[in-house]
Amino acid sequence: MRRSGAPSLIISLFVLCGIFLSACGTTTPATNNNGGGSTPAPKTVTLVTDIGGLNDQSFNQSANVGYTKAQNELKFRRQVIESKSQNDYVSNLTRAAQTSDMVIGVGFLMATAMDQVAKANPTKSFALIDSCATDAKGNCDPLKNVAPLSFKEQQAGCLAGVVAGQMELLGKSKLTKLSGNNTIAAVGGLAIPPVDHYLAGYQYCAKKVNPAVTVKINYSQSFDNTAKCQDIANNQISSGKADIIFQVAGGCGVGALQAAKAKGVYSIGVDSDQSKVNDSVITSAIKRVDQAVYLTIKDFEANKFSPNPAPFDLTNDGVGLAGLSSSLPAEIKPVVDKYIADIKSGAITVPDAVQK
């Protein structure tokens, strides 16, 4: 009797292990909807912001919109790292590379840090908004794992300049808030290529529409100090007699919009439609950072990553102009539309350098 009980016990254990197979160390692979095998987990992507942060109401926020859209659609784990200073770039990009398959850096200022981290992590993919990865001498480093996401900001800046120049051309008879001094202004952050591209287009096309207009340009040397931009804009309005303020300074530029509202003049936003930020905004020069981030992540997930993406411009909806305020005369929109058509056709080539 005792010998016959042992085999029964062994058989019972096998049966129990079969019932609780997963508890015995075996896992069942996930299957796809077609029942044709396992579904790979989505690749992970981390967004690293510039110092303006997610609430800059400008390009960092726009980048997050595109990132969030892709994350919701593709269901990868969300990870966003906000940089508080330029000293954070290398550590933030490194941390992102250690925990994800792709890293997207927001902004020209982290170009050298991106070069360093991408070289140290050759199996990871990177994308950088507004710049290529640059070496210590400031030269573009054509790394195979870094996609530079560039924009023709000068085209969007041109359209903002068309609006401002045409407003001054129409004068006080059409726009009673104008002072009659035929002067417009712009507040830039740092004198880096993306900022200067906007300003160059604004300056060039305002003068092309209205050769007599005066365009004043000043830099705040900041993308996050709202008070600096507010002070500059106040001076442009009070001393320079500017009627229209174009801000190209990220979160700092919100101060310029505030100054315009307080002084009762017009303003133009940047990167995203900023009419909801301040009701002095009559339009905004748009840079579709959200679209660039979204499409770059989509391509990466589809194994279509490219280190040589085409620039974003008017022809692919990468830049543009937000809707015009209803307070503006109807004569302005046809002029803007004509410039859009001429830029797309190549009849007008907008310069990307500010004329001193």
From TrEMBL:
Signal peptide (UniProt feature, chain positions): 1-23
InterPro entries, per database record: BMP_lipoprotein, PnrA-like
Chief site of localization: membrane
Keyword list, A-Z: Cell membrane, Lipoprotein, Membrane, Signal
Subcellular location: Cell membrane
Superkingdom of the organism of origin: Bacteria
Classification via Pfam families: Bmp
Annotated CDD domains: PBP1_PrnA-like
Domain annotation ABC transporter substrate-binding protein PnrA-like: ranges: 45-352
One GO CC term on file: plasma membrane
Protein name per its UniProtKB record: BMP family ABC transporter substrate-binding protein
